[in-house]
Amino acid sequence: MNLKLKQFQFDPNDPFKFDLLGRKEEILNLSLLASNVNSPAVIAIDSRWGTGKTTFIKLWEQYLKAENKPRLYFNAWETDFSDDPLVSFLGEMNEGLKNLIGSSDKANEAWEKTKAAGRQVAKRGIPALIRVATAGIIDADKIIEEEAVKAAGSLAGDALDNYLQQKEAIYEFHNALANFIENSANGRQLVIFVDELDRCRPNYAIELLERIKHLFNIEGLIFVLALDKEQLGHSIAAVYGNGIDSTGYLRRFIDFEYQLKKPDISNYIESLISSLDLEEFFNPRVKYRELQCDQEYLKKVFIMLALGLQLSLREIEQFLASINIAIRTAKENEYIFPALLVFLIISKHFKPDAYQRYISDDGDEKELIDYLYKIVPEKNRNDSFECALVEGFLIAAKKSRFSKGESAIFLRHREILQDAELDNKGKQYSDTVINIVNRPAGTGHGVNLKQLKDRIEWLSRFDFLDIQD
């Protein structure tokens, strides 16, 4: 029994064996692009939070590893405790490039010189006042002494001396790094993956970008940045002010942008459900006729909601982890109404006030059904058995309240059935809802809302940590 989703697994002999999102074609195409592009170059993998950027570039890195091509993975967020991103970056390179350096004396000597030059660059940082005053426009490779004097204005002469020393250190670093690449990669390009850039402290993220631009603009280097461009734009504004053109600023650092394609969500959800061993839970219930469709209802309703709400991959994983916990304590023959349970768990997250009103003694189903209708638009609703299923359960769970009559929504569905001017699809949808309300478990067994509420509230005692992007 798996209570949580496993970290993405890599098979060294077949990097795409466990690829649930079908990324192989994208990675093969991008690898071909990277091998043919004139280096140095920076490729940005732009996608919003929780859409699988980390998994994508780690899969890409594993593919290059299987192909025996030089590569390095650097998680910027894990190192943003450092004051200088160059220090942490060189430290990670020192560990990650050991296999590339190997036993070659020339490569080892070149790398030691690169580190020594890097230490000098880090030690003699460009004066902060110059960087801030110019909004990061200074290019340490091109600026000449006269421009530095103008930019520095009234800064003391030692700042200018420090700048000139910095420029010399950068020149030495460039030469040492170029020499290292020539002696270690045997003429092949070194692909460096930089992950989680948009999660870093704003200053750290911007400084790392500028370091990459100024210090690693070396033939033979290809940088792949995994980022959320919109979020990174907020970091740029935080450092340089809201008036800065963040898009124009990023163009100075990025040569190519690539948007991850949207994966097949249905297949992805089915794969995750399988990885959670949910069949192990549902199989014993199949012998009870009224529980035979529980697993299918859970899967199809969750897919409907995930597509309608455009959930990110991370949100899908976290909700499935919650649902998995919620059902695991149910007895073999216990009615858990998974279609309704799934909808209520998601509603509690996105519409907490409406959820609380629904489960209260004096609440009704109208607000949550309105929310369901927003998720499943009218043009798709009449063809959706899953939507009718959830709506029927929402009404059935509150039905015991109406001792003097039926709910207004239930009566409206009855009126639809009697309206000769309406099309058959609309009538069929209403007929399905009515049948579910009258026989929610396929029998006379009603929906125990309190049990579902207690099961969902029990989840609040768990802290579901972030799953790998």
What does the model show?
The chain contains 23 helices and five strands. It has 469 residues and is mainly α. It has a five-stranded parallel β-sheet, with helices on both faces. Helix 15 (313-328) packs across helix 16. 38% of the residues are buried. The chain has two domains: 24-259, Rossmann fold; 265-459, no CATH class.
How many helices? 23
Side-by-side strand order of the widest sheet: 2-3-4-1-5
Query: Strand-and-helix sequence, N→C?
Result: HEHEHHHHHHEHEHHEHHHHHHHHHHHH
The CATH topology assignment of the largest domain is Rossmann fold
CATH architecture of the largest domain: 3-Layer(aba) Sandwich
- Radius of gyration, taken over Cα atoms and rounded to an integer in Å: 29 Å
Runs in which pLDDT lies below 50 for 5 or more consecutive residues are 126-148, 465-469
Structural class by sheet pairing and helices: mainly alpha
Major β-sheet annotation: 5 strands, parallel
> How many runs of DSSP E, i.e. beta strands?
5
Query: How does the overall form come out from the CA principal axes?
Result: elongated
**Whole-number total of structural domains:** 2
- CATH classification, class level of the largest domain: Alpha Beta
Q: What portion of residues belong to β-strands?
A: 5-15%
Helix proportion: 55-70%
- Distance from N terminus to C terminus (CA atoms, Å) equals 23 Å
| Arithmetic mean pLDDT | 81
